Amino acid sequence: MIRKFLIALSSLAVLALLPLSSASAQATGPDQVVYHLSDTASQALGGLRNIKNHLDTDPTAKITVVAHAQGVDFLMQDAKDRNGNPYEIAVQELVGRGVKFEVCEITLKNRGLKKEQFIAEAQFTPSGVVRLAKLQRQGYAYIRP
User: Fold this and answer.
1) Confidence bin at 14 (pLDDT 50/70/90)
2) Measuring CA to CA, which residue among 62, 71, 131, 139 is closest to residue 97?
3) What contacts 128, CB < 8 A, 6 or more positions away?
4) What value does the mean pLDDT take over residues 111-130?
5) How would you classify the pairing of strands 100-104 and 62-70?
6) Which of 23, 46, 100, 104 could form a disulfide with 68 if both were Cys (CB 3.0 to 4.6 A apart)?
C-alpha cells in the first residue's frame, strides 16, 4: 500500500515538473515580444521609447509592433510626435535593430487609408487583433504601452 502511494506521489511530482521544463525550453531563446498600439497620441512616443530601452537592455529580443485603429497614424508619411519630431526616424532606427511594424488592413479599409500613405518600413497584416492573438499563441509576450 505504501509502495503504491510512493509510486503515485513520484508520478505526480514528474507531471508537476513538465510545464516548468517546457517553459524553460522556451525561455532559452531570445525574448519574443509584441507591442500593441491602438492610439498614436497616447502610446506611440512612449511605446517607441519602451522598445528602444527594451533592445538596449536585451539586444537579442525579437519585437513586433502591431498597430490598428488610431495607432497606425505614427507610421504614416510625415507623421510627427508632439515635439515636432518625425516618427519615421525612430521607426527606421528600430527596424535597423530588427523590429517589425505591422499595420492592420481592416483599419485601412475602415478609415479610407491607402498603403501608399505609409512609410516604407510599415508592413501590413490582414487583421491587427488576429495577428496579436496568433503571436501570443506562438509564445510572444504581450505589451501595451
Assistant:
1) very low
2) 62
3) 66, 67, 68, 69, 102, 103, 104, 106, 107
4) 98
5) parallel
6) 104
3-state SS track over the chain: CHHHHHHHHHHHHHHHHHHHHHHHHHHCCCCEEEEEEEEHHHHHHHHHHHHHHHHHHCCCCEEEEEEEEECCHHHECCCECCCCCEHHHHHHHHHHCCCEEEEEHHHHHHHCCCHHHECCCEEEECCHHHHHHHHHHCCCEEECC
Rounded Cα distance between 20 and 46, Å, is 33
Protein fold of 30-143: Hypothetical Protein Ychn; Chain: A, (3.40.1260)
Give the mean model confidence (pLDDT) for residues 122-133: 98
Does the pLDDT at position 17 exceed 90?
no
* Domain range summary for the chain, segments of one domain joined by +: 30-143
